Amino acid sequence: MLKIITIFGTRPEAIKMAPVVKELNKLADQIDSKVIVTAQHRQMLDQVLELFSIYPEHDLNIMRQGQNLFDITRRALDGLGKILETEKPDLVLVHGDTTTTFAGALAAYYLQISVGHVEAGLRTGNKYSPFPEEMNRHLTGVLADMHFAPTAASAANLTREGVPEEKIFVTGNTVIDALRATVKDGYVFSQNSILSGIAYEQKRVILVTTHRRENLGEPLREVYRGIRQIAENYPDVEVVFPVHMNPAVRGPVQEELGNNPQIHLIEPLDYEPFVNLMNRCCLVLTDSGGMQEEAPSLGKPVLVLRDTTERPEALDAGTVCLIGCDRGKLVDMTANLLDNQNLYYKMANAVNPYGDGLAAERIVQAIKFKYGLTDKPPKKFIPA
């Protein structure tokens, strides 16, 4: 039996690793698959575990009020090291760019356990943007033995850094697998009266999320002022803004956008209603990395509230546009998409470069191939 332990700790990791865990569980006669969660995020993680019916064998529960990067790294590394030393897996799988990801890879390395990095090879070239994610994925990449790159461009980044080609597998992004399993036609927002009360056929709904550390302070205030201006200029627009739990986000949001009947400030949504809301909106404004992959799969243009992106494929495909936190640029570009039907449809109908819903299958096939459970190598993901 091949023993594999999958490690994650945040909601985005859980969403993207759920399809991999599900695929591994199909092979119980060949693979002993276990899950460790650090719970770097607690409540946001738990709802994803419940949605996808994933039951971790180990839960470190490291989240503490007011935790910082030192706290997260120290508690995750210590807890993961003890469990891995006892479990002695053949392979540890980590995802993306969180502190849990780096700590998991480092703990495995200290114990000389092979590491597989899902969503490998994303780069901005600026170690402080996004922070600390850019260095987390760099450092994880140095420690990894198998690199599951979502796109050819990500694979090329790894090749330039000296990773041998036989260790790189282009798989597509597992977030598309999760998205396709969760979005439903005619979805009813039964648990949220605000969302269920919006007339989606008559209104143009803009979905907004913000949370990045590098944008906190005046940059985000400029974003919120721009959003308020859009709402004032377009009576048929309604803004839905699930507000991040960080007080540094919630305070300015309330001050700049509160008490506006066109702007709905709501609590963070569980994954299922969130992606179904994304499916019903007309446009997305976000500084999230994952939404740059998800929204184009649903035909939604994305204005990215960042100056850099580790997902340049979407820029090349024309599904997203980088606008930073400049209020004027936000207002102008949003207005262009609302007013110019040709521009809107050009972005909405561009080919999504991120996946076809089969990424988890390719990842597991690559693992089976490496460890001699099959003589059939995985097929490379190529956008349609």
UniProtKB/TrEMBL annotation:
Known EC number: 5.1.3.14
Q: Which GO terms describe its molecular function?
A: UDP-N-acetylglucosamine 2-epimerase activity
Q: Give the SUPFAM superfamilies listed for this entry.
A: UDP-Glycosyltransferase/glycogen phosphorylase (SSF53756)
Enumerate the spans annotated as UDP-N-acetylglucosamine 2-epimerase domain. 29-368
Query: Which domain of life does the UniProt lineage start with?
Result: Bacteria
**InterPro entries named in the record:** UDP_GlcNAc_Epimerase_2_dom, WecB-like
Q: Which Gene3D superfamilies match?
A: Glycogen Phosphorylase B (3.40.50.2000)
* Name of this chain's protein: UDP-N-acetylglucosamine 2-epimerase (non-hydrolyzing)
Organism source for this protein? Desulfofarcimen acetoxidans (strain ATCC 49208 / DSM 771 / KCTC 5769 / VKM B-1644 / 5575)
